[in-house]
Specification:
Blueprint: E1 2-6, E2 11-19, E3 27-33, E4 41-49, E5 52-60, E6 66-73, E7 79-85, E8 88-89, E9 105-107, E10 111-115, E11 117-119, E12 124-132, H1 137-142, E13 150-157, E14 167-168, E15 193-202, E16 206-209, E17 218-225, H2 227-232
Parallel strand pairs: 5-17
Antiparallel strand pairs: 1-2, 1-9, 2-10, 2-16, 3-6, 4-5, 6-10, 6-12, 7-8, 7-9, 7-13, 11-12, 12-15, 13-17, 14-16
């Protein structure tokens, strides 16, 4: 079994990866619950800016559900992926701008990887789960609701591709969790969907060299929300079910129009 990677200042983390099948775009991104098939992604908009193709999609979140982010690389070369959930880099917890200078995971040619939580050390992550915004990691830890409800993946190609890779296990201890800001976390104005900081799980990484290009070749932005919000925005068709004339009849016969009764 091969392993995947992630970057900081040219050093990358590599986690478990498996071969992926080929497809049309650079990557496929799925949001996968612990049980059952991947959540359905509803295409919303595609745009092109500079060298970056951006896909925007919607997803119906289910409260309390643990989820993972599955990314498949369809290119014949390894790529770097910066991933932000609710605006925070999932490796460092820092505010993300989807930039090539951020810590990122690396996926080998035609491979895929499943990312299951916030990285808290060389061997551990804490699980993603859908929750209310006030309980989200971003709000509780950083009082940050500026990008609530968005799973963002930025794909970077490698600037230089050296023949020999330098890989090593990190000798440092468990990464310290980011400290919370002073005072209570600011309550989000709306009861938006957010991502919580769940149970710890074993997930080892190693470091490798990787120099990303300056700009991402592709971005996938997934806006997840509760069903009521998606219905209100018209993303989902949520019309009331039509009544059945035999099943939903009234209990008693109605009075005729204009009929007087005591």
């Amino acid at each position: 079994m091969k392993t995947v990677h992630a970057v900081i200042l040219g050093i990358v983390l590599w986690i478990m990866a498996v071969p992926a099948s080929s497809a049309g775009s650079s990557v496929d991104v799925e949001v996968v619950p612990d049980r059952g098939d991947a959540f359905t992604l509803i295409p919303f908009r595609e745009s092109f800016s500079g060298d970056t193709l951006t896909f925007k999609k919607y997803l119906e979140a289910r409260k309390g559900e643990n989820y993972s982010i599955l990314v498949r690389n369809h290119l014949p070369e390894r790529i770097g992926i910066v991933i932000a959930v609710d605006g925070r880099n999932i490796i460092t917890g820092k505010k993300s701008f989807l930039a090539g200078s951020e810590m990122m995971y690396i996926i080998g040619p035609y491979e895929q990887t499943r990312l299951e939580g916030w990285r808290t050390g060389n061997d551990t992550v804490n699980r993603f789960y859908f929750t209310v915004s006030a309980d989200s990691y971003s709000v509780k830890t950083f009082s940050d609701s500026s990008a609530m409800g968005v799973i963002a993946v930025a794909v970077f190609r490698e600037r230089n591709r050296p023949a020999a890779l330098y890989r090593e296990r990190s000798a440092s201890g468990k990464a310290a969790a980011p400290s919370a800001p002073q005072g209570e976390a600011k309550q989000a104005e709306k009861d938006e969907a957010g991502t919580g900081f769940g149970n710890e799980q074993y997930s080892p990484v190693i470091k490798v060299e990787f120099e990303p290009q300056r700009y991402p070749v592709e971005k996938v932005l997934v806006k997840y929300a509760w069903r009521e919000e998606l219905c209100r925005k018209g993303i989902l068709r949520c019309r009331p079910e039509a009544k059945n004339r035999l099943w939903d009849e009234e209990e008693y016969a109605p009075y005729p129009p204009g009929y007087y009764h005591r």
